[in-house]
Amino acid sequence: MNTKQVRYSILELALISEGFTLKQTLNNSLKLAQHVEKFGYTRYWLAEHHNAVSIGSSATSVIIGYIAQDTHKIRVGSGGIMLPNHSPLIIAEQFGTLGSLYPNRIDLGLGRAPGTDRETAQAIRSDFMEAAYTFPGEVEKIEAYFSVNNAHSKIRATVAEGVDVPLYILGSSTDSAHLAAKKGLPYAFASHFATTHLYEAMRIYRSEFRPSTVLQKPYVMVGVNIIVADSDKEAERMLTSLVRMIYSIFTGQRDYIKPPTDMTTDLKDIFKHPQVHQMLKYTFYGSKETVKEQVETFLEETQADELIAVTNVYDAQDRVRSYQLFAEIMDELNAQ
Questions:
Q1: Structure pTM?
Q2: Which of 92, 154, 188, 317 measures 20 to 30 Å from 112, CA to CA?
Q3: Is 113 left (phi over 0), alpha (psi -120 to 50) or beta?
Q4: Which domains does the chain show, CATH number per domain?
Q5: HSE (CB half, 13 Å, CA atoms) of 177?
Q6: Residues 93, 179, 116, 108: is their CA dihedral positive or negative?
Q7: For residue 37, what pLDDT is reported?
Q8: What is the Cα–Cα distance from 196 to 165, expressed in whole angstroms?
Q9: pLDDT tens per residue across span 217-265
Q10: Of 70, 80, 79, whose CA–CA distance to 33 is shortest?
Q11: Measured between alpha carbons, how far is 50 from 52 in angstroms, rounded to an integer?
């Protein structure tokens, strides 16, 4: 049995549902953050994606400021900034500024994937592939810009020096596990969609971990898809929006998030398709009792230090309710 206290947090993509504007979507993201702050969530992270009609979190650092401004204690950050898309200096300046505006509340999660397709990655930064290969060095530049020891360098992010903005390494394969372990940084794995290498990545990270000034022992954060409703049937109905979203990704016909429907035979077949099933392997849906059992088993198997929940459903109120029930589940499991 997992006997430690497990934190629980949220990864937000600001998904745009059919019939809603970006403004309405971001307003709902803020309302959600205000709710989950009261529910006991540790952090609220925004993901960076580009050229996707249904994802509104492209200008990640801007939305982080928007969320942090009208919340009070929940940590707000990036899950993550796709560093090869950016200049480390500019990211240090952006997050150093956020860290000064909202002290002890800003996280900087860093990933090496583009968060988009190859053509868009090239449009963002023509030398993207080179920057991706030098990701460890780019992370070191970020660390240097936040250090007070950088005060005498020719190139400085003056607004970042000495500001407390913790770094997190994100991964969806095993590559970043080695880096996070070597640097002694917390490690977040994107198992809400990249499920294949979760256990191997955790093994590498834990076995190779070197204590650092920021972290004395490994800290693993794991992404899971969570849909909790008042009944199994209602949760299954909410799930249909996610199934359609994944199907649109595989078929290259990305669209806004569709309203839920009954779970038809066709949708069940899509959900059971090997590729879709693998991608959604760590998707826990159902009533509170059903999901609690699934999550408890998952925590025993992974010994994760923190779960990052992703709830991709159509209706904003359904999301709030799902996150409320998930918080109750985590509180009950932590109290056992």
A1: 0.95
A2: 154
A3: beta
A4: 7-230+282-312+319-335 (3.20.20.30)
A5: 20
A6: negative
A7: 98
A8: 31
A9: 999 999 999 999 999 999 999 999 999 999 988 888 888 999 999 999 9
A10: 70
A11: 6
